[in-house]
Amino acid sequence: MSNNNLIKGSLQTIILKLLEENEKMYGYEITQRVKELTEGEIKITEGALYPALHKLEAEGLLTTEIQQVDNRVRKYYSLTKNGQKEVSAKMSELQSFVGNLQRILDPEWRPGLA
Amino acid sequence: MSNNNLIKGSLQTIILKLLEENEKMYGYEITQRVKELTEGEIKITEGALYPALHKLEAEGLLTTEIQQVDNRVRKYYSLTKNGQKEVSAKMSELQSFVGNLQRILDPEWRPGLA
DNA sequence: AAAAATACCCAAGCTTCTTATGTATATAAT
DNA sequence: ATTATATACATAAGAAGCTTGGGTATTTTT
User: Fold this and answer.
1) Chain B CB contacts of A34 below 8 Å
2) pLDDT (tens digit, 9 = 90+) per residue, A33-78?
3) What is the CATH number of the domain that holds B48?
4) What pTM value is reported for the model?
5) Residue B96 belongs to what domain range?
6) Under a CB-based contact definition with an 8 Å cutoff, are residues B97 and B10 in contact?
């Protein structure tokens, strides 16, 4: 896992959204899913991911469940009810931010344009 | 100037892009332009803006020019040649990041869709 | 046998932001 | 007339969120 800047603040939203779609995922799986979806362009570092997961759990948005797979431990995360509510909030926050970014950076841009 | 999170890392790109379009701007003007373009949704704080401007100047991407307007001092910033080169680099970096974000967060999304 | 992949974790340090503060002039409101 | 808001710059402490670089352990590939 290495080299990509930016993200700063969107990692939580990414985690929550992936868990909304997948019911239950473990850390390593999340890094692989993101890598796959972005064709290797975004690589979530473990040093960023695990603290983020622990924080979301501490905030009551995620719960964990340990599973044993071939002598290896997997820690599955899933959304709590509060977590489910937070997904939409974080998503619309991020979408509106991206919209505003476009308005600043691309004068031609308006919603509903390619 | 207050209350908006996110941004984290995109401020430099915003500054450079605005200066590409406007030749010369002063700090306060930048905060007002962003506020105007986003209908008040993004407010650049001065505590974020001025250090960012100073850093870009120290990196040789911006130059300054002091002007006196009605007993008030204005510090105009404009792009250096290196600054002009950096705009496109920072822009494509950010655009590709936003594209990747969409791919993660919106499974339906693909380039050239509303 | 060695390397890479799978799977978790932590800590130091850096960057970037928020919040709070300070200085100073001009204009609008009470 | 005085106060508040707008204009215009700046700095500094602290928080948040990363990167980098460790560490542990098993399984699969080379």
Assistant:
1) 104
2) 999 999 999 999 999 999 999 999 999 999 999 999 989 999 999 9
3) 1.10.10.10
4) 0.91
5) 11-105
6) no
